Automatic annotation (TrEMBL):
<comment type="similarity">
    <text>Belongs to the oxygen-dependent FAD-linked oxidoreductase family.</text>
</comment>
<dbReference type="InterPro" id="IPR016169">
    <property type="entry name" value="FAD-bd_PCMH_sub2"/>
</dbReference>
<dbReference type="Pfam" id="PF01565">
    <property type="entry name" value="FAD_binding_4"/>
</dbReference>
<keyword id="KW-0560">Oxidoreductase</keyword>
<dbReference type="InterPro" id="IPR016166">
    <property type="entry name" value="FAD-bd_PCMH"/>
</dbReference>
<dbReference type="GO" id="GO:0016491">
    <property type="term" value="F:oxidoreductase activity"/>
</dbReference>
<feature type="domain" description="FAD-binding PCMH-type">
    <location>
        <begin position="64"/>
        <end position="237"/>
    </location>
</feature>
<dbReference type="GO" id="GO:0071949">
    <property type="term" value="F:FAD binding"/>
</dbReference>
<feature type="signal peptide">
    <location>
        <begin position="1"/>
        <end position="18"/>
    </location>
</feature>
<dbReference type="InterPro" id="IPR050416">
    <property type="entry name" value="FAD-linked_Oxidoreductase"/>
</dbReference>
<protein>
    <recommendedName>
        <fullName>FAD-binding PCMH-type domain-containing protein</fullName>
    </recommendedName>
</protein>
<dbReference type="InterPro" id="IPR006094">
    <property type="entry name" value="Oxid_FAD_bind_N"/>
</dbReference>
<keyword id="KW-0732">Signal</keyword>
<dbReference type="InterPro" id="IPR036318">
    <property type="entry name" value="FAD-bd_PCMH-like_sf"/>
</dbReference>
<keyword id="KW-0274">FAD</keyword>
<keyword id="KW-0285">Flavoprotein</keyword>
Length: 507
């Protein structure tokens, strides 16, 4: 009965939303800045009525990001052109956004309403140096480009699971990977970054040069400048990933949940193992399905820490050996572009009772309510990923990052709820449902003393502040604010970028 009432309410609200359209505005300073850029960098600027602009807008993973209408896009061919662009943006005061791969779902992160999009698509070189143990990557490259270059070598790199993800945003948000148990976050494996500051200054930063900025960039997104190149440490990979996919029977959902909690407790005994569990599926009124992806650089079946996943009732198991490129292409197939996408995240301590309650809330409330929208493309899920001790503490003494987790004594569970659909008018209904679910999950975890204030930047929704965990560490937060004041003293990124994930300098 309650579900029926909810569905009727959804239909009424959708009719109201369909009658309201947002006007398209033009700010004179945007026109001025775009016109100057077109004069200074011929062939590097595209306007709303051009085919190039349309192509660039359609390259975003989420259509709700791509449909935002910047006044122009500019695509530098090298770091020097990027310097010119950033200097002009700072001088004219125009709003801007930076696009690497365009995989973010939060409005104004990689696109912007009016203003200028700085599209790094041409900064996409990949140069492998196995003799020196690193790969140089332009941040406009996609991870598939990187994996393709490494395909015939004995090396891998700590990069995104999905190959269509852009290098830049993924790295600056932290970066989860099948290698994370061994090598930590992707940002822990950065050797050097080339960055253009908001005033157009070009810097190379590493442990020995501007170490304060180097640390701050690893987890802070675009708050400190525009990164144009990253040098990444290579990981020895003499064989393919051993990958197992398990699809569980619906009645064994909670047993699978117990399995991932059990694994999280002992994961340090085999840091090569990697696990994620997804609870979800189509919004078609049926009970969500449960699946697990297990991977290991040697053998899934011989890893004792992965044994609990095979003791749960299942109806399908498949097993493959896959290269990093093949694995990334598989994840791309499971997460296609061209839909409206929404996401939010939370983190809890490894408390099986709290995790069970959260999953039950998803299965019994959020997923059924999503079925009311009647969107045949509608699909979503709750993704559960362990953050193991070896993952969190990598680089604790030698390679600090800005995620604020390197002192954690116990493993954590990273949760993200995701939804995709096609109808524009469902956006304003789906987002509150996701926020309500996350709020309930946080409340549940708090009641069980299992809450944690880390919010992963790359999964955060617009109404979440991913730096809250860092802000509560007064010493670290003071260092971050001082770094912001030093390298962006006029707070250009804070004033001229419209995304919600901002770090402000000292006031």
């Amino acid at each position: 009965m309650l579900a029926t009432v909810f569905c009727v309410a959804v239909a009424l609200v959708k009719n109201v939303l369909a009658s309201h359209q947002q006007p398209l505005l033009i700010d004179p300073k945007d026109l001025h800045a775009c016109s100057i850029l077109e004069f200074q960098l011929p062939g590097r600027v595209s306007f709303r009525d051009s085919d190039v602009y349309k192509f660039q807008s359609e390259s975003y993973w989420a259509t709700n990001q791509g449909e935002l209408s910047a006044f122009c896009h500019t695509a530098p061919r090298d770091s020097q052109e990027l310097q010119q662009i950033m200097l002009l943006i700072s001088q004219t005061g125009t709003f801007f956004a930076v696009k690497s791969g365009g995989h973010s779902v939060v409005a104004n992160t990689s696109n912007v309403v009016d203003g200028i999009v700085v599209d790094l698509e041409h900064l996409n070189h990949v140069t492998v140096r196995p003799d020196l143990g690193f790969v140089d990557v332009g941040v406009g490259a996609r991870w598939n480009d990187v994996y393709q270059k490494l395909e015939d070598t004995d090396y891998g790199v700590v990069g995104a699971r999905a190959g269509s993800v852009g290098v830049g945003g993924y790295l600056l948000g932290g970066g989860l990977s099948p290698y994370s148990g061994v090598a930590g976050w992707a940002c822990d494996n950065i050797v050097l970054l080339e960055v253009v500051l908001a005033n157009g200054t070009l810097l190379e930063v590493d442990h020995g040069h501007h170490p304060d900025l180097f640390m701050a960039l690893k987890g802070a997104g675009s708050n400190f400048g525009v990164v144009s190149r990253a040098r990444l440490q290579l990981v020895s990979a003499h064989d393919r990933f051993d990958v197992t996919f398990i699809h569980y029977k619906a009645e064994h959902t909670m047993q699978a949940v117990h399995a991932i909690s059990e694994y999280t407790d002992v994961a340090n005994e085999d840091s090569g193992a990697a696990v994620s569990i997804s609870v979800g599926g189509l919004y078609d009124g049926r009970r969500p399905t449960v699946s697990a992806v297990l991977s290991h650089p040697r053998s899934v079946l011989l890893s004792k820490v992965l044994a609990p996943f095979f003791g749960v009732g299942h109806h399908l198991v498949s097993h493959k050996r896959m290269s990093q490129l093949e694995l990334a292409m598989m994840y791309d197939a499971m997460n296609p572009r061209g839909f409206r996408q929404h996401r939010a995240t939370t983190t809890i301590r490894n408390d099986v009772d709290s995790l069970t309650d959260i999953v039950q809330d998803y299965v019994s409330k959020l997923h059924p309510n999503m079925s009311c929208f009647g969107d045949e493309d509608g699909q979503g899920g709750l993704l559960i990923q362990p953050l193991t001790k070896s993952h969190l503490q990598t680089g604790r003494w030698t390679n600090p990052n800005m995620l604020g987790l390197q002192e954690e004594a116990s493993p954590l569970l990273l949760l993200s709820v995701e939804a995709r659909h096609s109808d524009l008018h469902d956006d304003e209904l789906i987002r509150p449902l996701i926020s309500e679910f996350i709020y309930a999950a946080d409340r549940n975890a708090t009641e069980r003393n299992a809450s944690h204030d880390f919010r992963y930047l790359n999964y955060a929704s617009a109404d979440q502040f991913p730096f809250e965990h860092v802000r509560r560490d007064h010493k670290l937060w003071s260092e971050v604010q001082a770094t912001k004041q030093k390298y962006d003293p006029h707070n250009i990124s804070g004033k001229q970028m419209r995304h919600p994930f901002k770090i402000q300098p000292y006031s």
